[in-house]
Amino acid sequence: MRVLALVPGGIERQLEFFPVLREIKEAFNTADIAVVADPEAKDIYQLSKVVSEVVPYSFQASNSPADWANLLGIVRDREFEAVITLTDSWSLGLLLWLSGIPTRIGYQGGSNGWFLTTLLPQPTDPANYTALLKALKVDAPLAPPSLNVPQADLKAIDDLRRGAKLQGGYVAVYPGHAPGGEAYPTDQWVAILKDFQQRQPDLPLVALQTPDTAANIAALRSALPTLTVLEPETLGQMAALIAGANLLVAVQGYPVALAAALEVYTVALSAAPMPAPAGAGERLVNVAASTGKLADLTPASVLTTIWKS
């Protein structure tokens, strides 16, 4: 059975959908699963064992007729038997109808009533996809997402850790930008991390550097010379670094979702209370500003939460 899923959104949304794809694979042992995902999120499927193909497509961009026709050609060529779509756009609904896929499943809304064969009510919890599975006659509870980190990424991180002389646990820090683009101020990060160094002098602090955090980490290093900086090159390497941490302290974003899937203790800073990522339980603590502004979250409130956890 060949199954296609159209999953718009970032890495967090893709991780939410991992359990759906796993249940389809387990229900149909011979299932061949492909996903259409936004280009900036497609690499997360390197951590999935059940997806055989990922097709990049910009759901929010103004795609050219050539982009649309190319996607239609790919979908037609694969001869899928079923598709699940989380979109409701007219152009993609038409594409799925023209593709000839016999079973087309999605939620009510937009143009889906014109083009899909199975329409489902919008769930009250956007991350609850059980109805999509039942439409495929798969009746199974959704377990938390599970990640499969490639051996090459594990080895690369082992080499990085040895090079940084990290022989035990550490606190991973991700000073990225919140979904609205706001960054937590450097001086407030410094206050938090200095408190860590005073209370836990033998537990290294490791900043996870990506293009999103490079400028913030450069500022942190000038104030914290002993800060260890590691730069993962892939999402698999990022997952491996997070998995090896005793604790992750991060601004709301995809590293928090990775930590939830990896069951790593996490303190997530956010401008407002954030929805729990897939797989999150008691190991995730969200410290949210009461004003809706990330910068108003005081280091004292963050530290109080950390040391009480």
Name the features.
single chain; 309 residues; Rossmann fold; 6-stranded parallel sheet; elongated
In short:
With 309 residues, this protein is of the alpha/beta class. It has helices at residues 11-27, 65-78, 90-99, 112-115, 130-135, 151-163, 186-199, 214-223, 235-243, 254-262, 299-308, and strands spanning 2-7, 32-37, 51-56, 82-85, 103-107, 118-120, 171-174, 205-208, 228-230, 247-251, 266-270, 284-288.
Residue share in β-strands: 15-25%
Low-confidence stretches: none
The CATH superfamily name of the largest domain is Glycogen Phosphorylase B
For the largest sheet, list the strands in their spatial order.
Answer: 3-2-1-4-5-6
CATH class of the largest domain: Alpha Beta
Task: Tell me the span between the first and last alpha carbons.
Answer: 46 Å
Give the helix proportion (percent range): 25-40%
Mind telling me the C-alpha Rg? 21 Å
Description:
This protein is elongated. Helix 7 (186-199) packs across helix 8, helix 7 (186-199) runs parallel beside helix 11 and helix 9 (235-243) packs across helix 10 (254-262). Strand 7, helix 7 (186-199) and strand 8 (205-208) form a beta-alpha-beta unit. The chain has a six-stranded parallel β-sheet, with helices on both faces. Strands 9-8-7-10-11-12 form a six-stranded parallel β-sheet, with helices on both faces. The protein has eleven helices and twelve strands. The longest helix is centred in the N-terminal third of the chain and has 17 residues, at 11-27. Helices cover 38% and strands 18% of the residues. The chain folds into two domains: 2-135, Glycogen Phosphorylase B (Rossmann fold, 3-Layer(aba) Sandwich); 151-308, Rossmann fold.
